[in-house]
Amino acid sequence: MIGSLKADVVQLVDNHPDRHVVVKGDTLWDISSMFLKSPWLWPKVWSVNPQIDNPHLIYPGDVIYLVWVNGQPQLRMDRGPRRLGPQIRRSDLEQAIQTIPLQDIKSFLSDNLVLQKDELEKAPYVLAGVNERIISGAGDKVYARGELPDVDQNYYGIYRPARIYKDPETEEVLGYESKAIGGGYLVANQDDIMTISLKRTYEEVRVKDRVLPTREEVIQSVFYPRAPEQEVNGKILSVLRGVTQIGQYDVVAINRGEREGIKTGHVLHVYRKGEVVKDPVTQEMVTLPSERGGTIMVFKVFDKVSYALVMRALNAMSLLDEVRTPK
Predict the structure, then answer these.
(1) Which residues fall within 8 angstroms of residue 183, CB to CB, at 6 or more apart?
(2) Hey, which of 64, 173, 183, 240 has its CA 20 to 30 A from 56?
(3) What digits encode the pLDDT tens for the residues 5-38?
(4) Residue 75: its pLDDT value, please?
(5) Nearest CA to 207 among 285, 119, 255, 136?
(6) Residues 246 and 252 sit within 8 Å (Cβ to Cβ)
(7) Strand ranges for 84-232 from DSSP E
(8) Closest CA to 18 of 97, 96, 80, 74
(9) Are residues 205 and 115 in the same domain?
């Protein structure tokens, strides 16, 4: 309880502005970081004028300003002078600023899956291409073998296992990450052999690639950052772009998921492992305390693994650094 209360304390940054005019490319997180030491607490201090219907639709040109109400800071928004009488604001939803930079996570929202072993083994697999081709691409047909799940669709994704996630402490297998290779339409299905016409491919489709139901989802654009309701202690398993040093807007996988109560929007702090040094007096090897490395926000959750975006990097971060509930 004490940790949760501390996580909810709103503090303003030093030399914060009194107002900010929104420009193209801003995100809610960026704007909040100009005012708040913990930008993810913006829902607690966000206040809007009653004539504004949706507080999450903010556009370039809007003015965000800081006021104090009963001794507490509030962020408000002004859309400038309005004419008397009814009027309609004509702005496409696509012009509204985003909560976080979606371009950094768009592909991971739609293209990556973390499956359990039985899900992967039961999925149909590519048997061959037309004319016994070993590899195929967009516009080609491929044959796959296996039993399709009973779903009302005819578009399927082609996935290839990429890595196995294991818990660094318990050695439990947490899931099998698979990346999208492409997708296509089911054009024929006879016995356990299906024919798929490939619509798009990111790499060559190969024998043994897996076929899974998918759909072209609308990319989630609004996230509600908040601390987890429970205590979370986990580790960074991987950096999805393949680098070893982790920085701002990198995507990481952590060893906590739905099973541990993780949800999209959960914010966690990253702590670098303390260095091991030699005590010059006793000659003992001593582990120094962990140091805060940055802040991540979860945007996609699987059973035992989650993907998160690095929103803030205070220091260089690495694999197996700890992730914890903010305090």
Answers:
(1) 155, 156, 157, 158, 198, 199, 200, 214
(2) 240
(3) 455 678 899 999 999 998 888 888 888 889 998 8
(4) 85
(5) 136
(6) yes
(7) 112-115, 125-129, 135-136, 141-145, 155-166, 173-190, 193-201, 205-206, 210-213
(8) 74
(9) yes
Between CA 15 and CA 308 the distance in angstroms is: 30
Instruction: Look up tokens 């296992």; give the residue.
Output: 161
CA–CA dist 145, 143 (Å, integer)? 7
pLDDT of residue 131: 78
Structure tokens given for 110: 């739609």
pLDDT value of position 84: 41
Supply 253's token pair: 């996988």
181, 213, 245 - which closes a domain: 213
Residue 281's beta-bridge partner residues? none
Residue 8 in any domain: the answer is yes
Q: Which domain holds residue 159?
A: 108-213
Q: In whole angstroms, what is the distance from residue 37 CA to residue 16 CA?
A: 10
Q: Is 19 helix (H, G, I), strand (E, B) or coil?
A: strand
Q: What is the pLDDT of residues 222-254, one digit of tens each?
A: 778 889 999 999 999 999 876 667 888 899 999
**Burial label, 280 (beta-carbon count in 10 A; 0-12, 13-18, 19+):** exposed
Average pLDDT of the chain is 84
